[in-house]
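Lecture 7 notes: from sequence to structure.

We start with a single chain of 492 residues. Read the sequence below before looking at the structure.
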Amino acid sequence: MRAFWTMAILASLWGCGSGDDGRDRPDGDVVLDWGEWPDLVQDTGSDIPADGIEDTGTDPVVTGPGQYRTQIPSAVAPGDGIAIRVSYPAAGDARHVEGAPVVVLVPGGLGAGSLGWDEPDPLALATGTVVVSMVLPGGREPGAISGGTYDYRGPDCKAGLRDVLLFALGTARDEDGWSLADRVPFADTSVVGMVGLSHGGNLALTTLADHSASLAGLDFLATWESPVGDQYVTAELGGQGDVTDNPFYSPGTCTITTCPWPGLDGVLDWATGHDAVIEDPLDGTLWPISGSFFLDVDGNEVLGDNEFLVKGIAGPGEWHETDYLPWLYYSTEMASILDDELATFFPLGKPVWMASPEQIRDYWAERDGALVIGDVHDAWPDLLIMVLGTVDDHVQVQPDHPHLRSQMDGFVASGHAWVRLDPDAVYVAWLSGTPAADIPELDAGQALPWPDTETHLIPEALQEHIVPAAVLELVDRSRTGNVEADLDAMLF
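Now the structure, written as tokens:
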């Protein structure tokens, strides 16, 4: 089960389907070409249940454990709707006597997400909850197609997530006219929350800010190692796999919305001829380009083996005849430098594959969760917030974990009613068998400190338990209304 849960996280983070990108081509035609599908999430499109696992078929009522796939009607996904997978425990294994709370997983990565296996999500079985996963508008994989056009987690993706949340809350129906409770009668739609996986934390926060009026009844949000802030999404401070960290970042200096890097503009340079690619996160298409930004620390105007690359991420672009070319987007901090230096780097004009500084700012205004923490607090002052992180982040490498600290700082500074780092030790202990006294924890309402940041984070040996423990604590607190800063024992 532990290994299966880890693989489920990977599948949720996979972030892109294989084949057509779902965008309307200039002539209105959509051509499907599935290509090769990775073994990790291979799916023939048929429901093949594991032994003892229920496959609902055409019977709307289930007893569990099992899973089913369906489509959620949505104005931003005309025709097909939003593809979702609903996983559920056995009725007798529901977390509470009132039923199984509902958890919506917000996919990580930069793509549209994946529904993964035709087996119940192990999170549902481990926590006694109903777990809903989704493919964002315009995304597609074998056996799961969401209508609409993928806008790289912009307004359409936020509206699509809203519609899935409405289904989880019991106020919307699927394409067959069934509510969640029609098929899973022990689903408790009075306790509903989200888990934003990695970049899914930004989508969750911006959706809450944009659609607060229609999502009354939501109880909690957990973000798992989420890069809430544009410099983290673009890994411009350094990330796993980089040859070095950004030498202009000083740990402990980030604010809620920015990380200063004094002096970086003086060494930013363009490495002409450096082989690079833009990878479309929706379909994996690779677009070769020549050149990359880098930090010319030694001042020789040549990219050295140990100099930091500023790579950018792929986002909305434009059609070139029959091919869709995403543009590279950098952080808004990089956009401020390019305001003055773009003509220096590119005297013949901006490359066709690069977003302009203004387009970069518009992009992040829609997608950066750090910018809306105050709005989320204002609209959801009692929403339970949990920021999840382990000692070794799956992308970020800064010793002060500023992507976690900025989220905590934002909610603590706003006076949010309840926010905490990581699950209470008693829940992690119950899942892992590790004594609670040996598990780091911070009381709710405490900011993540610097220095000694990593002493307060869950050690990597326990990382597989962090999301299940968070879900258990959050659904239990939602059910009981318990908002104590620390717990001496599990609530159920």
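The first strand starts at residue 54 and ends at 55. Keep this in mind for problem set 3.
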